[in-house]
Amino acid sequence: MVHRPKTILRIAWLFLWLIAAALALYAFWIEPSGIRVVRHGIVLDRADAGDLAPLRIAVIGDLHAGAPYIDTDKMHRIVALTNGAGPDIVLLTGDYVVQRVLGGRHVEIEEIAPILARLHAPLGVYAILGNHDRWENARHIAAVLQSAGIRVLDNRFIAVARGKSMLYLAGIGDYFSQADNQQLALRDIPSGRAALCFTHSPDVFPELPGMCLLTVAAHTHGGQVWLPFVGRMIVPSKFGQRYAAGLFHEDGKYLFVATGIGTSILPVRLGVPPEISILEVTAPARSSER
Questions:
Q1: Among residues 131, 125, 224, 115, which one has the least CA distance to residue 173?
Q2: Which residues contact 28 (CB under 8 A, 6 or more apart)?
Q3: Is residue 244 part of a domain?
Q4: Which residues sit opposite 56 in a β-bridge?
Q5: Is 6 part of any domain?
Q6: Residue 221 to residue 132: CA distance in whole angstroms
Q7: What per-residue confidence (pLDDT) applies to 287?
Q8: Can you tell me the distance from the alpha carbon of 112 to that of 24, in angstroms, rounded to the nearest whole number?
Q9: Residue 266 DSSP code
Q10: What's residue 15's pLDDT?
C-alpha cells in the first residue's frame, strides 16, 4: 500500500506520454497527409453582388509541392477532387513550390504545372504567385504556368464572359513579398462594377478599394496548428490572427482566406486539415436581379 502513490504517478505520466505520442502521430502524419473538399457558403449582401453571384469558386492554396505528403500522386488527386466539385472557376492562390520544410524535397515547376493543367472549369483556371514562388524565380514559374495554359494574373485583370454579362477578375501581387500593385491590377475595370479579386497574402485586404467585393487569399495555412483556448500558433501576417482563416466582412468588402494544402518549415497540421475550398457565392434576391 505504501507504494500506491508512486504507482499512480507512473500511470499518470504514462497516460500523458501516450496522449502526446498520439497527438504527434496525428499532427505529423495523419492530418497533414489527408485532403478534403470543403464547401463554404458566402452571401454577398451588397447592391452590386449580382456582378459576381451566383458563382462556384474552387480555391487551391499553398500547394507546396515537395513538402511531405505532397507528391505527384497527391497532386493528381487534388486535381481530380477539384474537377469533381464542378467549379465555375478555379483560382490558384500561390506557393506552388517550397524552399524549407523538414522532410521535404524540391520539386521543379516543370513537374507541377502539367498536373495543374488538367484542372478545368467553364470560366477558366487562373493563378497568382506566392512568396515562395518569388523567392525561387517568379518570372520562370509564371512562364511555365502560362505555357501549361494557366493564366497568371499578377497585378492584372481579365474580363471573363459568362452569358450576357462579364465577370471582372483581378489578381493582386503578393503583399508579403512586396509585389502588390493594386492600382495597376484594377485601373481598367469599369467604374461602378464589382470585381472578384484574388491574391496570396491577405494583408493587402484593408487597403483594397470597395471595387474588390470579394477577395480570395491564402498564405497563412490557418496557422498550421490550432489549439483550443490558444488559437492558431504561427500566422505569417502583420495582423496576427485577424485574417488567419475563413470568411471576413469589413467595410462592405468580403475576404475569404483558404487554409490551403501543404506545409512549410515543419510538416505539421493540427486542427487545420488540408483542404480544397469550394466557395458557393450567392446574393440576396434584390442583388441577383441586377
A1: 131
A2: 267, 268
A3: yes
A4: 280
A5: no
A6: 13
A7: 46
A8: 29
A9: S
A10: 66
Question: What residues does 58 pair with on adjacent strands?
Answer: 90, 278
Please state, in angstroms and rounded to a whole number, the distance separating the CA atoms of residues 69 and 263.
9
Rounded CA gap, 287 and 290, in Å?
A: 6
Residue 17 placed within a domain: no
Rounded Cα gap, residues 107 and 70, in angstroms: 10
Reading the block at residue 40, the C-alpha cell is 463554404
pLDDT in the model for residue 290: 44
How many separate domains does the chain show?
A: 1
H or E segment to which residue 169 belongs:
strand 165-171
The CATH number of the domain where 202 resides is what? 3.60.21.10
Say if residue 93 is exposed, middle or buried (CB neighbours under 10 Å; 0-12, 13-18, 19+): buried
Cell representation of residue 230 = 490558444
Q: Which of 203, 197, 148, 210 is nearest to 175 (CA)?
A: 203
In a domain? residue 193: yes
> What is the domain range of residue 272?
34-288
- The amino acid sitting at 12 is A
The arithmetic mean of pLDDT across residues 105-131, rounded, is: 97
Confidence band (pLDDT; 50, 70, 90) for 78?
A: very high
**Spatial distance between the Cα atoms of 199 and 123, rounded to a whole number of angstroms:** 18
Distance CA(154)–CA(170), nearest Å, equals 8
Q: Is the peptide bond before 228 cis (omega within 30 degrees of 0)?
A: no
